[in-house]
Task: structure prediction
Amino acid sequence: MTFASRVGGGAGSECQIRSTSETVLETEDLTKDFAGFIAVRSVNLRVRRGAIHAVIGPNGAGKTTCFNLLSKFLNPTRGRIVFDGRDITALTPAEVARLGLVRSFQISAVFPHLTVLENVRVALQRRRGGSFDFWRSKRVLRAFDERANALLADVGLLPYANIPAGQLPYGRKRALEIATTIALDPQMLLLDEPTSGMAREDIERISTLIKALAVDRTVLMVEHNISVIANLCDRITVLSRGEILAEGDYQTVSADPAVREAYLGTGHD
Result:
């Protein structure tokens, strides 16, 4: 049994590395120690500008901890993080976001009592930097509606624009969170399991959206759906027990005996 057959196919997909070799995000000896438990150990990650780069691995491999370090929701025990040529190791999450490195979360984070449209509009207002927008008239705020509706159409949520976000099923809340993340117009997106909990048609829509976003942005994502990874990615980094186990395109990592062993518990086909 091969790694490809274990995780649902995708072996026929070809992942093409984009033409630029410029690095937009890199880590050096990135390590996180929780009172003796090392969740991330000496990770040296390089993400090319304009790439769709996936971080995968078995449960407990350190993927989400790594994302929390990159987005500065955790501080590393040691190591360095550089984004777009700037050392961001000591910055706060808000400072990193203002630089254009924005993340979504594994657990959907929306304003449940606001409508779907209002959730996206809040993100658009935040990008504009108008801290007093909430005191403005509805007429002024509606200036954001055209762009908000366009984003909702991109993620398949336009029919739900006027219902409270809390009433959306889980998969559509995930789609809404992606829309609000895009509304911030980031240079680089960190997507934590963007297709988790979605139906097949929603997965296809979001996959198409991610591919379109990567035309002028960089995407780094944690994802368990390997078929999605196989069809989207330029490069894959495999983590196991907090360390980089393998790296390369889909064909390279899926053929790696160490990767198959990490997922299957055996090095044999």
